[in-house]
Amino acid sequence: MAKYLELRFSKKVRLCGTIQYIIATMLYTGIVIYAPALILNQVTGLDIWASLLSTGTICTFYTTIGGMKAVIWTDVFQVFVMLSGFIAILIQGTLMVGGPGQVLSIAYNHSRINFNDFNPDPRSRYTFWTFIFGGTMVWLSMYGVNQAQVQRYVACKTEKEAKLSLLVNQVGLFFIVSSAVACGIVMFALYKDCDPLLAGYISAPDQYMPYLVLDIFEKYPGVPGLFLACAYSGTLSTASTSINAMAAVTVEDLIKPSMPNLSPRKLTLISKGLSLIYGTSCITVAALSSLLGGGVLQGSFTVMGVISGPLLGAFILGMFIPSCNTVGVFSGLGIGFVISFWVAVGGTIYPPSPATMGVLPSYGDFCPLYNASEGLNSTIVLGPLPPLNISEPLERPAIADDFYAMSYLYYGALGTLSTVIVGILASCLTGPVKRNTNRPGVLWWDVMKQTSSVSPEEPKIPFAKVSQDSPDLQKKAFGSAILVSGVWADDKALMAKADSAFLEGSEESLCLCTSLEPSCFHLLRETDV
């Protein structure tokens, strides 16, 4: 992934992108590990620190030992476990409310289902625009410039398989997210008159789901364990992929360039050692995540938006802005990160009010207050909860209710947009790069033109020199060939080597594309199997 930044700009930009990715992934993975540890604490009563340690240790162990193969196969199994947990919660919760119609009616009457929220105010947490613009940028950074995803694409045998795997992933993601949303709607229908957080049954919003499971499956032993396995499946899937990706990026971008003579065996051992180190670091971040006030979802999206947003901007500058130079992309990355980080920190220190965020009200009018009598004939008195003791708010700067109150889904879009704008301006001020000086294939439209101009059905035309040799050599020339562009000076050595091999009677020969357009030329070595 970062190799592109070196080809388009310089090694320093590649190093900057690598460091940003490692930091973002480490923080994100730590927050992800914290989520099931909190559930384990709620379900079993196990100490939160013991839960964190056991979760992180298990994930780090099988990622270090099994590598990428273990990550992929465990991901496949964990998807089915997650869906099983969601389906069990949906069925039981819906039956307790009174059926799907009753659930939808309660949610609609209390504005929990609203497809017409087009409020353009960026301070509103969840609207049509926050999902379209903010959500799109966050997901684009995750699927477009994230090594954890790119390494999965590369693991496919062909480009067609990579595209197919991405489509399958989107279908699975749709079912997972839809199931989570449906569980939230069922949860509100069950607790519309008594919010567990207001009643004091839970102490943080992240504990809603574990409380729901323990409540509705109280008479079904073993089902809470299924939910725990469901939560752990999602965490282990994400964490193992991220740890493996961080180790791979470190080896490719930091270890290999500085120590190019290391053997594959040593590189493998170094990669496993890095997985262990990064796993330990993620456990440390998970411990610090217990101090988050906004919840796991907001924390994870904030980290990805603040750090991965500017990185997405750097790739946009490289692929779509031919005049962008190294100074421009460095300036964009720095300013984009500073702005998004500034807003995120400000929003954490001075959190906006629920009214500013557009948070819908919750109710506690019918929470059980106390037992009127004891024994078999005890009754539960229902009523409104006593008012909460609210401390005096801190003195807030004027910017706190405007700029800092921006929805966290916009952090990534803010970082990306700032990076692109500053990168373009800095490149124009310092001398834009001429398009003809860029390497072929680093701009998006060059890649598209190259792909469309090369037809797999066109036969390869060998040099006349090949036809003068034996029929066997001619046959092998078509099965094992080097396509040469001759565009870059860096490739001259390889071309000379191929020509020398040809003169010596090697099983390799030179072959040209049928089209003589520059976009057709490639440097490709095919090997007979």
Descriptive keywords:
529 residues; 4-stranded mixed β-sheet; mainly alpha
Task: Describe the secondary structure blueprint for this structure.
Blueprint lengths: L1 H7 L2 H34 L3 H50 L2 H10 L18 H17 L2 H9 L3 H32 L5 H4 L8 H9 L6 H36 L5 H26 L6 H25 L5 H24 L4 H4 L9 E5 L8 E4 L27 H20 L13 H10 L7 E2 L1 H4 L3 H9 L1 E3 L8 H12 L5 E4 L11 E2 L4
Parallel strand pairs: 4-5
Antiparallel strand pairs: 1-2, 3-5, 4-6
Radius of gyration: 28 Å
Residues in β-strands, percent: under 5%
The backbone outline, from C-alpha atoms, is globular
Rounded mean pLDDT is 76
How does this model look, in words?
By secondary structure, the protein is mainly alpha-helical. The protein is built from 19 helices and 6 strands. It has helices spanning 2-8, 11-44, 48-97, 100-109, 128-144, 147-155, 159-190, 196-199, 208-216, 223-258, 264-289, 296-320, 326-349, 354-357, 411-430, 444-453, 464-467, 471-479, 492-503; strands at 367-371, 380-383, 461-462, 481-483, 509-512, 524-525. The strands form 2 sheets. It has a 4-stranded mixed beta sheet with strand order 3-5-4-6. Strands 1-2 form a two-stranded antiparallel ribbon. The chain is globular. The protein starts with a helix and ends with a strand. The relative contact order is 0.12. The model is unreliable at 370-376 and 455-529 (pLDDT under 50).
Quick gist of this model?
The chain has 529 residues and is mostly helical. The chain has helices at 2-8, 11-44, 48-97, 100-109, 128-144, 147-155, 159-190, 196-199, 208-216, 223-258, 264-289, 296-320, 326-349, 354-357, 411-430, 444-453, 464-467, 471-479, 492-503, and strands at residues 367-371, 380-383, 461-462, 481-483, 509-512, 524-525.
